[in-house]
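Hi,

I'm pasting everything inline rather than attaching a file, because the server keeps stripping attachments. The sequence lines come first, and each chain or strand is labelled.
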Amino acid sequence: MLRYLGRRLLLIPVVLIGLSILTFTIARIVPGDPVKLAAGPQARPEQVERLRADFGLDRPLIEQYFTYMGGLIQGNWGYSISNRRAVGPDLVRYFMATLELTILSTIIGISIGIPLAIISARWRDRFPDHGARFFSIGAGSIPVFWIAIVLQIVLAQNLRLLPVSGRVDPRADFPEIITGMLLVDTLLRGNLSGFGTALRYIIIPAICQSLLVISVVTRQLRGDLLDMMNKDFVRVARANGIPERLIWMRYLMKNTLIATVSMLGFLIGYQLGGAPLIEYVLDWPGIGQYALKAALLLDFQPIMGATLFVGCVIVVVNLLTDLVYRRIDPRIGFK
Amino acid sequence: MTPPVVNNLIAEFRAGRMSRRQFLAMLTTLGATAAAGTVLGYAPALRSTAALSPLKQIDPKVLIYGGGQDVATIDPSDRVDYSISAIMRQLYDRLFRFEGGWPQPIEAGLCQEWSSNEDASVWTFTITDQAKFHDGSPLTAMDVVYSYQRTLRFQRQRSSLLSAYLSVDGVTAPDATTVVMTLTTPYPAFDRLLAFLEQPIVSEAIATANEVDGDEGAAWLVDHEAGSGPFKIANWQVGTVYELEAVPDYWQGWPGAGRLSGVVWQKSEDAGTRKSGLLSGNFDISDTISVTDVEEINSTAGIAAAVNFGLLGGYLKYNTQEGPTADLNFRKFLNYSFNRQAFADSQLGFVNAMTGPIPEGIPGYDPNAEPQYTYDPAAARAALDASPYKDGGFSIDFVYVSGLDFEEAAGLILLDELRAYNITLNLIPKNWPDIVGGCSVPAGGAPIAFIFDQFPPLADTWLIEKYSSKSWDRPTGGSYQACSFYKNDEVDALLDELRVTVDAARSEEIVVMVQSMIAADAPDLPLYVAPNVLGLSNRVKGFTYFGDISVDFWRLWIDDAT
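And the predicted assembly:
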C-alpha cells in the first residue's frame, strides 16, 4: 500500500505541472489587457508600463512561467494585479468556506440520497419510486441558482426564517477563526450560539449544493440496486430464507457501494472547485467566486493559483477515493 | 442660519420619506419649542443639534449596508472604486469633503483654509491642529505630505490624475499646519480636483512601523487602517464582512441628530439579493438597486428607493478611424437613428438624457440645451444617403458588456432601426477586460461600443480624456474613454489650451466651443446619465445625495421611533 501511495503522490507534481502549463497558456492567450484594466481609466502610459514591469508581464512568456513556478515552489502564490493582495492566504480563506459547504452539502446529499434510492428500488415502479425519481431528476435538472433565489425569497424574504445571504451575522460577534470552517470553529470554542448562527447562514447554500448530490446518488444507487437485485446470489439468499433486511444491508448495499463511492468522490472534487452561481447569489465567499472574479478581471496570478489549488485538491480527493475502494472491497489490490 | 434639525426635516420631506402633514406638524412643534425656549431663556440651546432635535438621545446603532461590490483594498494609495471610496471616507480624513450635496460643493475637511498664487501654480493649505489618528497621535501637515508623496511614489490608480499636476518634490510642509503644493502645470481648479480625488491622509508613523521590504506599509494597509476618520475597523474579514465602529469623539463631531455606532458593509453582488436583503430587513441600505425593482421597493412599507443621477454617463462610441463609422455622415445617420424615447421607456423612464458631451453636474453643462441628435428618421435617411453606405447590405458590430441588460436594450433598439436600412447590427456581448483591451488601437476597436464613463466633475478632464487624440494616439494605446479614437487637430489644440489656461472666461469659452465642434463630428452619441438607485429603510436618517453610488455613513443615524 505504501508503495502505491508513494507512486500516486509522485504523480501529483506531474499532473500539476501539466495543469499549470495549460492554465498559463489559456490565461495568456485570451484577449484583453489586465494591466490596463488594473491601472485604471486615467492611467498614464508610464503607469501602465510600470505596473506591467512590477508583475513581470513585460518579460517573455517562458520566463514569466518559470518565474511563477519558481515562486510557487517556494510557497509564493503571487499577488493579485487588481488589488495587490497575496494570493496564497486568500486561496486558503476562500477554500475553507467552500470546504465547509461541501462537507455539509455532501452529508445532506447522502442522508437524503441513499434512503431515497433504497425506497425507490424497494418499491420499484410504484408511487414511492415515481416520487423519488421525480424528485431526483428535478433536483439535478433545475438550475441551482434558481433554487437559491426561490429559497431566498421564500425562507428569507417572506418567512424571515433564515438570512438572505452571507456567511456570518453582521450584528453578532465574528467567531474566532481556527480552521476557517465556522461550524467547526464555533464548536471547538464551545460557542453554541455562534454555531447556531453559522448553521442558519449555511442552510440555504448547503441545500442548493446538496441537490446535485441527492440527484446523482439517488439515481446511481437506485440503478445499481435494481441491477444487483436480479443477481443470482440475491435470489439464492432469498430462496434460503435470509431475512430481507439482511439481504439489503449485507448483500445489496455493500455490493453497490463502490460505484456510489466513486461517484461521490467525483462529486466532492467537483464541489470543492466551488459553485460560482450559488456563491454569487447567496454571497458565500467560496473559491468559485474568487476564481470567477479573477477570470473576469484577467487577474493572472489568482487564476493560476485557484486552478492549481483546486487541481491539487481534486487529485488528493481522487487518491482518497481509491483508498476507500480498497477499504470497502479488499479484493481490489494496490497495483 | 437654519438649524440642522430643520435641514434634516426638509431633506426628509424632499426625499419623500415624510408626508406634507408630518412635515408641517414637526415644523410647528419645532417652532413652538423654539418660542418656548426663547421665553424661558434657553434659546442658545436651539443652535445645538442635540438640544433641538426631536430625535435626541437616540442610541447609536449599527447600520447594515448591502454593497454591490467587494472592498478590494483599503490601501490609501492604491486603486479607487465606489466601494473603496465609501469605506475610505469613514476610515480616513481628507483635505476636503465632497459629500455635502449635489452638485458637489467643496467643504472644508482637514484643510481649513486654502489659497493659490495668481497663476494657480502654488497652492497653500492650512491644516487643522485638532485632528487625531485613531491611535491618539496628532495628524500634522507632515502626514498630509507623506500621504500625497506615497501616492505619487506608488504610481498606482489613485495617482493617475494627480501626477499630471504634482510631483513628489512638489509637496512640502513648512510647519505642522501648513502644506504647500507647487504644481508642475498651473491648474485653477486644483482644489476641486483634490476634493474629488479624496486622498486619504494616513499616519506616517503607523505606515512606517508596518513597513516590510520598503513597501511603506502597503502589504499591511491593504486590510488595516491608519486613519483619523469617524470610524475605525472593528472586524475585517476579506470577502465576507467588513465592520466599522464609530469613533465617538471624532474631531469633526457628528453632523446629524444622531449617529451610528457602527457600519457593516456586507458584500452582496447580486442585485436580486440586495433587494431581498432590504425587503427582509437584513439590510438597512442596499446600493445599486435595479430600476425594475424601484416600484416594488416603494410599495413596501418601511423602505423607499432614492433615485438620483450622478456622473456615470453612457455613450455609444463610434470607431472614427476604421470601417463605416469612420465616415462622418454614417455616424450622423446612427445618431439620428437612435430612438432615445424607446430607450428611456426600456429603462422605465429612469434616464437623464444627455444633451451634449458634458452631463449635468460638470461645469460647462448647459441645462437648456436640447439633445444635439434626436431621433429623426428623415435626417437619418439624408445622412445615410450622403455616405458611401446608402444601399446598406452589410453588417456592423455593436459591442456591450456581457450581462448588462440596459446596454443590450440600447443595441436592440438600434438593431431594430437599422434593419429598415438593410444594415445588420451584430450584438456582441463581451467581458469588460476585452472591451478595454479593444480600445487600445483603432484596428482592434469595435465599430460601435456602449461604454460608461465616470470622470471627475471637471470639464477639462472630462473632455480631454475622451476627445483629445493624445488620449489614444500614443505608443501604449488608448483607454476606454477614448474608444472613439477621435482626432480633430483644432479640438486637440483647444483642449491643450484648456488644460493650462488660468483665465476662467477663456476656459468657459473653450468648453462651449469644443462641445459644439465635437457634436458636429459625432464621434459618439452621448446617451444618458445612469441613475444611482439606493434602497433605504425608513429607520435610516440623514441621507444626503452627493453624486456617488454609495452614502456617507458619517451623516447617518438610525431612528427606530419613526
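The two ends of chain A are 9 Å apart (CA to CA).

If the labels don't parse on your end, tell me and I'll reformat.
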